[in-house]
Amino acid sequence: MSVVAFLMLCAAALLGVALLAMAASHARAATALVYGASLAICIVGTALSIAALTGRAGAATRLILPLGVPWIGAHFAIDSLSAFFLAVVNIGGAAASLYGLGYGTHEDEPHRVLPFFPAFLAGMNLVVLADDAFSYLLSWEFMSLASWALVIAHHRDAENRRAGFVYLIMASVGTLALLLAFGLLAGPDGHYDFEAIRLGARAPLTSALVLVLVLIGAGSKAGLVPLHAWLPLAHPAAPSHVSALMSGVMTKVAIYAFIRIVFDLAGALPWWSGALLLAVGSLSAVLGVLQALMQDDTKRLLACSTIENIGIIFIGLGLALAFRADGVAAAAALAMTAALLHVLNHSFFKSLLFFGAGAVLTATGDRNMDRLGGLIHRMPVTSFLFLAGCMAISALPPLNGFVSEWLTFQAVLQSPDLPQWALKVMVPAAGGLLALAAALAGAAFVKTFGITFLGRPRSTEAANAKEVDRFSLSAMTLLALLCLIAGIVPGFIMDAVAPITRNLAGAALPLQSKLPWLTIVPSFESGSSYNGLLIFLFIAFSSLLAVWAIHRFASHAIRRAPAWDCGFPDPSPATQYSGSGFAQPIRRVFLTRTPATREQLSMPAPGDMRAARFTLTIADPLWDWLYQPFVSAVEIAALQLNKLQFLTIRRYLSLVFLSLVSLLLVLAIWS
Amino acid sequence: MELISALLVQLMQMMLVLWAAPLLTGFVRKVKARLQRRQGPPILQPYRDILRLLKKEVVVANNASWIFRVAPYLIFAATWVAAALVPTFAKGLLFSWSADLIAIIALLASARFFLALAGMDIGTAFGGIGSSREMMIASLAEPAMLLVVFTMALVARSTQLSAVADLLASSGVGLRVSLGLAMVGLIIVAIAENGRIPVDNPATHLELTMVHEAMVLEYSGRHLAMIELAAAVKLLLYVSLIGCIFVPWTLAAPGGSTASHLAGFGAYIAKLALFGFLLAVFETAIAKMRVFRLPDFVGGALMLGLLGTLLLFASRSL
Amino acid sequence: MTHGLTFDVAHLLAGGLVLVSFLMITQHRLYALLNAFALQAVLLALSVAWQANLQHAPHLYVTALIALLFKAVIVPVGLHRIIQRLGIHREIETVIGSGTTMLAGMGLVALSMTVMLKVTPTADPLAREDLAFALSVVLLGLLMMVSRRNAVSQVVGFMSLENGLVLAGTGARGMPLVVEISVAFSILIAFFVIGVFLFRIRERFDTVDVQALDRFRGERR
Amino acid sequence: MSFSASDGVVLVLVIPVVAAAALALLPGYRASARLNMLASGLTFVASLSLFFADHSEAGRYLFVDDLNVAFIVLNTFVGFTTSVFSASYIAHELETGRLTPTYLRFYHAMYQVMMGGMNLALTANNIGLMWVGIELATLTTILMVGIYRTHEALEAAWKYFILGSVGIGLALFGTILVYMAAVPIVGEGVNGMVWTVLVAQAKHFDPAMINVAFIFLLLGYGTKVGLAPLHAWLPDAHAEGPTPISAVLSGLLLNVALYAVLRFKIVLAANPGAVAPGPLMVTLGLVSLVFAAFMLYRRRDIKRLFAYSSIEHMGIITFAFGMGGPVANFGGLLHMAMHSLTKSGIFFAVGHVAQIKGTQRVAEIRGLTVTHPWLGWSLVIGVVAIAGLPPFGVFMSEFLVVSSTFAREPLLAVPLVLGILVALGALFYHLGGLAFGEPTGNDAPSDASYTPMIVHFGLVLVAGIFLPSVLVAWFHHVAQILG
Fold it and tell me: How many helices (H) and strands (E) does chain C have?
């Protein structure tokens, strides 16, 4: 049996687990069973996909089942691209299942989570495996649907129901956009098979239209600005391990969709498509992180930061597209490698962070960081692992986030090779925005970690928090280790994605893993290089050296005392900086003049003992500009048309009469 | 043999930045004091401060976590490693290829990350002020710095400092507007990152104006010593960076003669003295800004960086 | 019998039907409307009988008889009764003024002519003209239904519409038995269902005014 | 001995008639409910035999060809499952006193008459007979809509009656016109009404005549299909009648009416001089789709909500057939079948819900998945399926229709996609409250049988993933007939 068949079996097994969970979701052992089975299957899936990626998986890579659109059948195939994304999906899935073994036991209504969790995993696997348009969209929408069910798992909260609603609408917008894209690609006769699509010839305008549609379709799922509005609502609403999957993995499936259709199926695209992507990507990166910085809800902050990271990935993809359109294959390969690496890295650290947020949620029952604080004392392991995640996502060396951003910067620096003026101006600007986003991300995660874990507890729940169970911790440890490994030896991953760039960008980076000291060198001409391993060793060495020297030569005396705080004695924990307080300077710098930010200060008159109150409302201006008109239009249309429900019979008859007369008139005039 | 000498140069460089850093700080202070018609502390005062701090006992706030105690070492290590990778008197250091300019910036960002966390660890309002403002400044300074790097990297086609220095030292480049813009930008970033006037005042503990000092308010003893040393190293790093990029001609080539190394060394000391003097003059000449005017100042660097990059594109394609 | 004469008689009768339709849409009183309707039914019966004669289709006489008996006698009488019994207001409430109604009616007739005369003249001219008139009657019946507010006048409008159908059906040469069945069917059903409804509506409401029925229009607001 | 088509056809027609007569005489609702089930089941079995029948011989009155056989099977199948549902539904109505045994006897008899009428319309090769069948089915449903004799029910029935009668009249006029067009070519008499003859000779017909005819037929039968703006009777009839009738209306009668339109579309398409029927159907379909999609938002009655959804789907189907071409026709046929199964399944669920909660008001039904997991989740599945989400059959048909439309006429796909999206939004907007949130109202377990509903959704699920090749070959064939 081929590796595709095995992977399909994995997906089928996940579906089987879902059915089983449906039947037995009220059983006590169901949680352990479902997550255990999902974990096992995902591990197998990971192994298989890595084998396929590294070319150890034999030749037969296609499977046609007699399902789906009858005259096409359901095609499933695996190539290097899908193998890479399968690995992302299954590693994320395995980690989430492991985490779920512990986290899932706190679920109030497990029967609303258990059946959909493996179904969601199966959906994601199938999307990546699908090799014809119908199977593809079927799996895609199935994935959306399963995640929708998970988003409204805690359905008693009206907020969550709304999140689910918005999510489903946006998911459907995306699916319909993809459907139209496939319609264009497949042509009126319905050649939905990807192989046939690749062979088909199409006009440049068609390809461009496909690009725009896919940008809407995959972009809305990935959370690209301006189609991101659902993401900060829906991702946090789900149980945390599902949030991790949605943010860390499902957005990557959307990236897969984008790469598959735009790079693989759509054919040659003009250079401006790269510019479009760059614009959208850098916009997402900056707006996403700014939005993240303004959040006080940890999970929502993480969700917004996903928008940022998706933006970074799209900057890489946009560069790749632009370079490819101009025939600079080596640079295209570099940009694409950067994007793919960031896909993997983001799936690691975003899952890790969501797991951490989930652990805090379990321990304290609160997602709002302004009611937390000081958790580092109560939850030492979680906080350490969460810190690792924060460092990784803030692109600090030697962790993995830095590597992919570094590669993206290197790709940006290849831009002088581009002939178009617009790109020459846009690419450095995008690079600047990328740098800005990276710096702001650092601020956002200092805020997250600092407010949540450091300082003094702001509530009794936070003061009495307990460390979470060992499954959750081991899942987080696993991901933190992966972050470190991907950070210090990225060369192996870069080599693994080389076949993908060779297929889709027309070139590959030089072999990395054979370079001395595992340094990564994107191109030998530039000579830019980075070595995470050495940096790691250096820092370890010099900090140990410092510690050793201090302890050898300096005073050992240590005394615990109340905090100095410029002489203010022991104030209440409420005097600590709050989340919004922390973000205030940055908000003043970047968001002062946006109409969406409203500060209201109600200060009591002198002598009045009333407490002063400061309220801050930050709306997403894009919601007002882009979504609200649609909502209002639908509302108005529904209201106006609704009058037709309340007509008299005579008026209804008049409608019939008028239709008849007008059709006859048409006939009289026309024919 | 070659390897050993290279290793030796690298080690020398590491030790050099460590030992020269307090000296530079002391020198700047001294010059400033003289400019203000004060006697000022001796140039070697920073060494004494650090030694005294090392000998003192550490007072740790009751609720401080391990972050608080680990951060000084990590901050110091990251800064030190970064400084060790900047060519001071010789280029082509043994380990220079393990990190380019971007990585150096990121290492400094790591140090800042931990510093900001340490500021928040005790849970005092001052720590929060400091961390929050530091991150705000960094959110502008870091991209500005990266854009400056872009400018140089686009000239040199590499982000490797040695390569940049090589290229700028070669005669072919000449004077360019964008490099000038980049230099101004880099200087602004250096001022902001090191908490110098007008961004921050390293000598004040006035609560509403301080940034860096607010974060380290709770530190004492050897922890404070590490942080002070790290701050000094960071200043040195920026000065070395500016020297290395804009006055690259004096750097000793790898494998060069001992004499060339010595010459480079001498030139390096001269550069330090020059930049230290200019810094002191600058600081004396202007006043500290309000916190919320800082974005204009640092944002200026961002604009300069972007302008430099774009101009470079223009000049390249013309 | 010359072609001209047959044509003329059929033409005359069908034209008469249209004319009576016009008469009906201008009526303001229910009784007058019923009388006009009875007249139309008589004309229809004559027309159908004429067709039966022409086509040598004796079964059409049955249709003619049905038209005469049911539509010209029983229905008007029955409706008279209902109006009296239920005490329905005898004025017809119109939606649009009679002048406008007339204009609209003329427009409809013109439309029917235009549409039907596009049919190639080689086809049976008798059928063609007949159809044009039938279409006019159908459209005028519909116009009446939509321009009147009373239930009774709407029912009459519907009946008039069916007159048009019968005219068309009988005008079609050799149209199989289906027509008779369906015509009988519709008269039967019309009576049956309307009777049931009138009965039920009587049971629940005190008026057959459709407006009262319309008080509930699907969903309450 | 070869099995001829007429045997099966006759059975399909005779069983309902006999059963109707028997049911009219039989007292006792339990026995009559069972007999109703039995008769419907037998009709279904008889209809299955049509698959194996020889399709070549077409009678002058009745025939079986590839187009109608599936309609018949679908019709009798849904008729059968609905009778099963009806048995458990009606008992409850009797308990609550909404119906009396006398009315129930009438109800069962009428049910069979209606099924017979629809079968007649489907098997007829004679356009007059087809008309008779549809009218029969319409009139019986009018009576059943009014069966509760409440204020609202009577008004709904009255509205249905008036609009339906006008539709009847228009369709008859169209039928007569078709005959008139045929007479000069095929001669007087029955031949002028035999569909197979009409199709064969259609190219010689006078185009002007059949143009007018088609307009009348489209509007006349379109009234039955519920195409906007001829739809007014549909939501109220669905909402106020007994739920099994709503299921049959949405699932079957609309299809049968559309089937009639299709028959005439084929005739028209065979004539080169006639106007293309496609644009007319596309326009009406899109208008219905978009209009119904917006109407879904402000619905307060759960049955009326799904009635509007039926209008929406009829719009999609009409649109698909209007577009024509192998893919769109295939999609349209599939959509028709899937919509029948799904929508009747939804009405089964809604019927149970309304009985349990004692209300049809959307606002008063909350958190169904909490109180009645089976019912609640079935409703969720139903809505997911009807909204065109996978892995259900409607998704496949919408996939085919939308993608092929976009490849051919991108501009037409815009309103299509818009309508689908708006409708999906509305359905989920309501579903969020119905199925989730804090439950309200009665939470007593229900003893009703969920089997028909589950069978329907199961079939739709299977069809969404896997279509048997026999069915596909057949669909293809029909798609070709439709041109």
Answer: 9, 0
Using DSSP bridges, classify how beta strands A597-602 and A613-618 pair: parallel, antiparallel or unpaired.
antiparallel
Helices and strands in chain D, H and E counts: 20, 0
User: Which phi and psi (to 5°) does residue A560 adopt?
Assistant: -90, 140
User: Cis omega (within 30 of 0) on the bond before D373?
Assistant: no
Instruction: Name residue, tokens 């049959």.
Output: D248
Q: Based on C-alpha coordinates, what's the Rg of chain D? A: 21
For residue D256, being part of any structural domain is answered with: no
The domain boundary residue, chosen from A509, A527, A546? A546
Q: Is residue C219 part of a domain?
A: no
* pLDDT, position A594: 60
Residue-wise pLDDT tens digits, A157-183: 889 999 999 999 999 999 999 999 998
Across A653-657, B200-204, D236-240, least confident range:
B200-204
Bridge partners for B191 per DSSP: none
Check whether residue A631 and residue A526 sit in a common domain: no
For A120, the token pair is 């969601």
| D13 min Cα distance to partner chain C (Å) | 18
- Rounded to 10°, the helix A470-488/A329-364 angle is 160
At residue D416, the pLDDT reads: 94
Would you say residue D170 lies in a domain?
no
The pairing of beta strand B58-61 with beta strand A613-618 = unpaired
B159 vs A: CB within 8 A: yes
- Using CA atoms, how far apart are residues A259 and D304, in angstroms rounded to an integer? 44
List chain C residues with CB under 8 Å of D229.
none
Residues A503 and A635 in one domain: no
Under 8 Å between Cβ of C36 and C17:
no
Q: Looking at chain A, which subunits does it touch, using at least 3 CB pairs closer than 8 Å as the criterion? A: B, C, D
Determine the 3-state secondary structure of C164 from DSSP: helix
* Angle value at C-alpha A268, between A266 and A272, nearest 5 degrees: 105
How buried is C22 (Cβ within 10 angstroms: 0-12 exposed, 13-18 middle, 19+ buried)? middle
CA distance A654 to chain D (A): 10
Return the residue matching tokens 């909404």: D98
Q: Find out whether A509 and B75 touch, Cβ atoms under 8 Å.
A: no
Please give the tally of structural domains in chain B.
1
Asked if A542 and A634 sit in the same domain, the reply is no
| Residue B257 structure tokens | 């003669």
Does residue D255 fall inside a structural domain? Answer: no
Poorest-pLDDT segment among A589-598, C98-107, C157-166: A589-598
Mark whether A375 and A491 lie in a shared domain: yes
Domain presence at residue D96: no
Is A98 inside any structural domain? yes
Q: Is C121 on the interface with D (CB under 8 A)?
A: no
- Stated pTM of the model: 0.92
The pLDDT score that the predictor gives to residue C205 is 38
Residue reference for tokens 């008499």: D189
Q: Which of A91, A139, A125 is nearest to A347 (CA)?
A: A91
**In degrees rounded to 5, what are phi and psi of residue D235?**
-60, -40
Q: In which domain, by residue range, is B36 found?
A: 2-317
What number is the average pLDDT over the span B159-165?
Answer: 83
Domain that holds residue C30: 3-213
Question: Which tokens belong to C180?
Answer: 């008779």
Residues paired with residue D258 on neighbouring β-strands, in sequence order: none
pLDDT band, very low/low/confident/very high, at B205 (cuts 50, 70, 90)? low
Between chain A and chain B, how many beta carbons pairs sit less than 8 Å apart? 295
Q: Which domain holds residue A122?
A: 1-187
Residue numbers of B between 172 and 231 with CB closer than 8 Å to A: 205, 207, 217-218, 221-222, 225-226
- Name the one residue in this structure whose structure tokens are 């009645």: D372
* Closest Cα in chain C to A668: C115
Mean pLDDT of A489-493: 91
Q: CA torsion angle for B71, B74, B75, B81 (degrees, to 10)?
A: 180
Please tell me the distance from the alpha carbon of residue B253 to that of residue D475, in angstroms, as a whole number.
Answer: 80
